[in-house]
Amino acid sequence: MKIVKLLDSELERLGLQVKIVPEASGEAGGDEEAKLDRARFLVTLRGSLPATDAQASGWRIDDLAALAATLAYLASRQGKASRGEVERLLSSKLPSWRVNIALDRFVRLGYLHEDENEVLTVGWRTRAEVDLEALAESLLTISEESSEIGGREG
User: Fold this and answer.
1) What is the SS3 assignment for 40?
2) pLDDT, tens digit (0-9, with 9 covering 90-100), for 25-52
3) What is the DSSP annotation of 51-106?
4) What's the CATH architecture for 59-154?
5) What is the pLDDT averaged over residues 66-73?
6) Where in the chain do CATH 1.10.10.1210 domains reside?
7) DSSP H or E run through 14
8) Under 8 Å CB-to-CB from 93, ≥6 apart: which residues?
9) CA 116/CA 128 separation, integer angstroms
10) What angle do CA 86, 90, 95 make, to 5 degrees?
11) Is the CB of residue 104 less than 8 Å from the CB of residue 62?
């Protein structure tokens, strides 16, 4: 663990950090060293990615929106939902062929996890790269602003 802390302090100068992602999101208790043996170690940005840089990331804006909507939906459903429910949600805004491609991609890249019963949960990569609290706060802020604008017009 000392090596990880040393690396993290060196990466801080570059605006990066070492992030330790446990194997399972609900892992609690037990031997700390055994947990670290099963954890993933990643280097990520220390802060959030500016919108201008996000455009250059190679992601389509509708894929980012689909991922954000999926993560928000999972959060509202205590962290899990059937794939069918998520497909219906996303199909209201995207073509169904695009929805299937996007969900398969999110699972393949580790942003979502799909079990044998086609239940989707947050994946290891989301826990590493996405600040779910900031996402929820952003969505609530956007929702409040929309309500205020709608209230003034009506």
Assistant:
1) strand
2) 555 556 777 778 888 888 888 877 776 6
3) HHHHHTTS--HHHHHHHHHHHHHHHHTTTEEEHHHHHHHHHTTS-HHHHHHHHHHH
4) Orthogonal Bundle (1.10)
5) 94
6) 59-154
7) none
8) 65, 69
9) 23
10) 130
11) no
